[in-house]
Structure to design on (185 residues):
């Protein structure tokens, strides 16, 4: 059942789930209306530029969540080990143990990649750079920290795909557990 949408920000979470489930092209106005409880006129009131603006709003919301929950603690936290463990726990929860599609990742491999390239690239660059900062604070060589960070994000994204493809959330948990060992000081 759709929840009550009184303002634009109320529509973001249901929009995100529609785009996760159906992709950009598959997210019809009928599906969006059903998820948000908004008619076409209300949708265009909140998002005058249509689906593209809806996705941009969802990507901005995703960026803000990751900034607050993942990137900032990794970059600025006093305890690098604690920040890395927090990243892994928040990632596990956010992607619902690999049962939730990474919308940014799906946009990156879809035919709409160029339309949202700045937000997509920023998501991955920010994550890699923030994790690298924590690893450097652990005492790692910057080049090794960068390599470990890229591999960690790669592992997380691959684990999402594989655990969904195999319908096995334990695969995602195993990837997180392996990262916990690999990233420990």
């Amino acid at each position: 059942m759709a929840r009550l949408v009184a303002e634009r920000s109320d529509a973001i979470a249901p929009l995100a789930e529609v785009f996760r489930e159906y992709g950009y092209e598959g997210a019809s106005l009928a599906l969006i209306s059903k998820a948000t409880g908004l008619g076409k006129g209300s949708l265009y009131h909140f998002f005058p530029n249509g689906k593209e603006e809806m996705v941009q709003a969802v990507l901005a919301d995703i960026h803000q969540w990751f900034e607050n929950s993942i990137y900032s603690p990794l970059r600025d936290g006093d305890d690098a080990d604690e920040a890395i463990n927090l990243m892994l726990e928040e990632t596990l929860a956010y992607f619902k143990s690999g049962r939730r599609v990474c919308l940014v990742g799906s946009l990156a491999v879809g035919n709409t990649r160029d339309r949202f390239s700045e937000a997509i690239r920023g998501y991955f660059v920010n994550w890699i750079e923030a994790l690298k900062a924590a690893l450097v604070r652990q005492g790692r060589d910057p080049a090794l920290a960068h390599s470990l960070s890229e591999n960690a994000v790669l592992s997380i994204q691959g684990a999402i795909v594989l655990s969904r493809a195999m319908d096995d959330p334990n695969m995602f948990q195993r990837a997180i557990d392996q990262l916990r060992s690999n990233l420990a000081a």
Q: What stands out?
A: Residues 58-183 form a domain with the Tetracycline Repressor; domain 2 fold (CATH 1.10.357.10). The first helix runs from residue 8 to 26.
